[in-house]
Amino acid sequence: WGPQGRFRDGANLMDPEAALWQALRAQHTDITRLEAWLDLFLKLAQPRIEPLRSMLHDWAQHPEATLPFSALTLADELAGLCAEQQVTSLYQLSAALADALRRASAGQVHASDRAALEGAVEELWRQLHQHAAGVPVLTPPHILAALAED
Predict the structure, then answer these.
(1) Residue 102 C-alpha from the chain's centroid
(2) Mean pLDDT of all residues in the chain?
(3) Of 94, 19, 5, which Cα lies nearest the Cα of 49?
(4) What is the H or E stretch that residue 146 is in?
(5) pLDDT value at position 8?
(6) How far is 51 from 70, CA to CA, in rounded Å?
(7) What is the C-alpha to C-alpha distance for residues 141 and 132, in angstroms, rounded to an integer?
(8) Model pLDDT for residues 69-127, shown as the tens digit of each residue
(9) Which of residues 123 and 11 earns the better pLDDT score?
């Protein structure tokens, strides 16, 4: 493991994408377990989770504000990325968050619901980083329950 998130291959440094291509050429049986795959996953998730966190934080602080439409797009993109990881907890949380945001965009949202959505995005952020570090993730049941449709 080298500087700036690059992987060491003998004397060479490779970015995560190059490391994955090398693993594919070598017919590695499961690239989803490689550090380069997890690094690339986080690299793709970061530009989606960070603005979503910011949007939901701002939205939760201003009861008169409407949910930005781009929050729905970001949540859907994250759910798609998480589905590719084949980690049930990560996908369930991201999909439940995307569904809850769609419902929230369609109607009046109470402060407690805004807080639940903000808490869920923070949990998703935590899980994304844990998963990328190779640590198993599990969503607390109360977070999924708070996102469930009544």
Answers:
(1) 17
(2) 82
(3) 94
(4) helix 141-147
(5) 45
(6) 9
(7) 22
(8) 999 999 999 999 999 888 899 999 999 999 999 999 988 788 889 999 999 999 999 99
(9) 123
Task: Indicate the residue type of 30.
Answer: D
Residues 91 and 79 sit within 8 Å (Cβ to Cβ):
yes
DSSP codes of every residue in 25-43:
HTT-S-GGGSHHHHHHHHH
Q: How far is CA 67 from CA 58, 80, 99, 115, in A?
A: 10, 21, 13, 13
Longest dimension (CA), the chain: 58
Q: What is the pLDDT of residue 63?
A: 84
Among 14-18, 31-35, 41-45, 72-76, top mean pLDDT goes to: 72-76
CA 123 to chain centre: 9
Give 71's contacts (C-beta < 8 A, 6+ positions apart): 52, 55, 56, 59, 101, 105
Across the chain, the runs of DSSP E, i.e. the strands, are 7-9, 12-14
Report residue 110: phi and psi, to 5°: -75, 160
Structure tokens given for 32: 């989803």
- CA dihedral sign, ordered 6, 85, 97, 121: negative
